[in-house]
């Protein structure tokens, strides 16, 4: 059973009103879908955070818009101000539970790569993978085990082991993670023998004398 999250309709779409909502602990949002009319709504920030913790990032939420109708949705896009640690806006996508859809799923690296102990650096190249599945089968994350990676080894999309009812649709040859040698800046080589500094403007013939000596002659 999906978790219920209450939402209120918005009629004032001005930026000043959105800021006022955030100050009062609410988040501006929009509800939309293939067969759902786009509707501006708002939800309580604390309630949304609790809901996401309960169902997961790609979990199904029953969004109950004032007026009574519930929509089964996922939080398709969440905009966050990292500096203020504040949710700015949410896109709720109404899903058809019987139709497959695409979604971005976070990659979670587990294990310790032997190559890292040997001085290598674990380079995570894909932080998310795109999957196709029924809404209820979309995983919260995809685990990738790096415990057998030595320096120079990598894991591609086609190497990722999964057991869920979903399909990863990234290019099979895309690299998810690799272990590389760290970049080392080479020190400039110094000459073994110290060179004498060149004297600029030194007279090569002492017999010519200085300008003052010439004037006195």
Automatic annotation (TrEMBL):
Gene Ontology MF: a single term: 5S rRNA binding
Pfam annotation, one family? Ribosomal_L25p
Does Phosphoprotein show up as a keyword for this record? Answer: no
Would you tell me the Gene Ontology cellular component terms?
Answer: cytosolic large ribosomal subunit
> Per its UniProt record, what CDD domains does this chain match?
Ribosomal_L25_TL5_CTC
| Top-rank taxon, per record | Bacteria
The processes (GO biological process) annotated in the record are: translation
Pinpoint the Large ribosomal subunit protein bL25 L25 domain residues.
Answer: 5-92
Give the matching Gene3D superfamilies: Ribosomal protein L25, beta domain, Ribosomal Protein L25, Chain P
Per the entry, what this protein does is: This is one of the proteins that binds to the 5S RNA in the ribosome where it forms part of the central protuberance.
The family database entries (HAMAP family) matched by this protein are listed as:
Ribosomal_bL25_CTC
- Subunit-structure text: Part of the 50S ribosomal subunit; part of the 5S rRNA/L5/L18/L25 subcomplex. Contacts the 5S rRNA. Binds to the 5S rRNA independently of L5 and L18.
What the entry lists under PANTHER family is as follows: RIBOSOMAL PROTEIN L25/GLN-TRNA SYNTHETASE, ANTI-CODON-BINDING DOMAIN-CONTAINING PROTEIN, RIBOSOMAL PROTEIN L25_GLN-TRNA SYNTHETASE, ANTI-CODON-BINDING DOMAIN-CONTAINING PROTEIN
Q: What is this protein called?
A: Large ribosomal subunit protein bL25
Species of origin: Sinobaca qinghaiensis
**Phylogenetic classification of the source organism:** Bacteria, Bacillati, Bacillota, Bacilli, Bacillales
């Amino acid at each position: 059973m999906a978790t219920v999250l209450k939402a209120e309709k918005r009629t004032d779409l001005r930026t000043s009103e959105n800021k006022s909502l955030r100050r009062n602990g609410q988040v501006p949002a929009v509800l939309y879908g293939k067969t759902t009319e786009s509707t501006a709504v708002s939800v309580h920030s604390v309630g949304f955070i609790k809901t996401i913790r309960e169902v997961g990032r790609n979990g199904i939420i029953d969004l109950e818009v004032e007026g009574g109708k519930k929509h089964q949705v996922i939080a398709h896009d969440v905009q966050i101000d990292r500096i203020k640690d504040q949710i700015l806006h949410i896109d709720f996508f109404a899903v058809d539970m019987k139709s497959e859809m695409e979604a971005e799923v976070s990659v979670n690296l587990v294990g310790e790569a032997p190559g890292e102990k040997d001085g290598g650096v674990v380079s995570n190249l894909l932080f998310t993978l795109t999957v196709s599945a029924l809404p209820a089968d979309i995983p919260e994350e995809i685990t990738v085990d790096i415990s057998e990676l030595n320096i120079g080894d990598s894991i591609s999309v086609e190497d990722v082991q999964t057991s869920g009812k979903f399909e990863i649709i990234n290019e099979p040859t895309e690299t998810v993670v690799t272990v590389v040698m760290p970049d080392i800046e080479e020190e400039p080589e110094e000459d073994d023998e110290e060179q004498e500094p060149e004297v600029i403007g030194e007279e090569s013939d002492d017999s010519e004398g200085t300008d003052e000596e010439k004037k006195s002659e």
